[in-house]
Amino acid sequence: MITALLLQALENTGFSEPEGSVYLALLELGSQPASVVAKKAKLKRGHTYNILGDLAAKGIVQEFEKDSVKYFTACSPLVLISLLERRKEELEVKKTGLLQVIPDLERIRNPFSVQPKVRLFQGIDGIKEIYEDTLRTNDKNLYAIGDFDHFFPRENDPELNDWIWKYCTRRAKLGITYVGITNKSATSDLAFKKRVKEKRTLKMLQGIDLPVEVNIYGNKVAIISSSKDMVGLIIEDKPTADTFRNLHQAVWKMLPEYRL
């Protein structure tokens, strides 16, 4: 169980599963030749040797020769933090470069190209992309209908749970106000308590099950299901967005302010 958790942590850092197995084996064994590491990691010797070479190139593993035999040693796990920091800096540089050419890319885009009107997303990464899309809008209000209890307390996925709360913080920093119609629940109470910091204003429903979340922003409507498989879609169509926004505002006027 501990090994599985460690492997998952390494994969989240950017390791492949074989790389994680080799690194963990080397941490436990100390300085060893590739053949010994391969046996511990349950991989073929040739494959293990290639992985050790890749890890050495990244500065995660060191190699040396002793009695004409090449040995490998795992660097301190603290090196992984430095690796992530370097990757973060590299991404920022790439992002800056991309932002500089976005206007040029937009200028050469064929104005008559057919743009997708409906996009389907599946899985955790897909749902994250839907939320990220809500941040790429010039609309300073995000109109929403949903129940926080269906989306935040995902006990089987604490990483996603933490990511969504951080998303709320990033949304607020961008000056986007969450205008939400939400069911009264424990998690909605928590969201209400954070309303100032996270730029959130709420109206209250009671006794209505809302397992699907609807977000209206700009000329888009995002619909996200809280089902186990996690699916969602974005409809990009101004009349559709305007209709949902108008319905939201009409219902908003009839509902009471959220209260604890």
Key attributes of the depicted protein:
alpha+beta; Arc Repressor Mutant, subunit A; 7-stranded mixed beta sheet; 3-stranded antiparallel beta sheet; 260 residues; 10 strands; 10 helices; Endonuclease, Chain A; elongated
How would you describe this structure to a colleague?
This protein is an alpha+beta fold and 260 residues long. The protein has 2 domains: 2-74, Arc Repressor Mutant, subunit A, CATH 1.10.10.10; 118-254, Endonuclease Chain A (Endonuclease, Chain A, 2-Layer Sandwich). The protein has 10 helices and 10 strands. Helix 9 (186-193) links the parallel strand 6 and strand 7 (200-205). The protein is elongated, with a radius of gyration of 24 Å.
Please provide a brief summary of the model.
The two termini are 41 Å apart.
Overall morphology: elongated
Q: Could you give the count of β-strands?
A: 10
- SS field, number of helical segments: 10
Topology order in helix (H) and strand (E) letters? HHEHHEEHEHEHHEHEEEEH
Percent of residues in helices comes to: 40-55%
User: Can you tell me the CATH topology of the largest domain?
Assistant: Endonuclease, Chain A
Q: Span from first to last CA?
A: 41 Å
| Uncertain regions spanning at least 5 consecutive residues | none
Mind telling me the CATH superfamily name of the largest domain?
A: Endonuclease Chain A
Structural class: alpha+beta
Mean pLDDT: 87
Radius of gyration: 24 Å
Topology (elements, then pairings):
Blueprint: H1 2-13, H2 17-29, E1 32-33, H3 34-41, H4 45-57, E2 61-66, E3 69-74, H5 78-108, E4 118-122, H6 123-135, E5 141-146, H7 148-151, H8 158-173, E6 177-183, H9 186-193, E7 200-205, E8 212-217, E9 220-225, E10 231-236, H10 238-254
Parallel strand pairs: 5-6, 6-7
Antiparallel strand pairs: 1-3, 2-3, 4-10, 5-8, 8-9, 9-10
Helix pairs in contact: 1-2, 2-3, 2-4, 3-4, 6-8
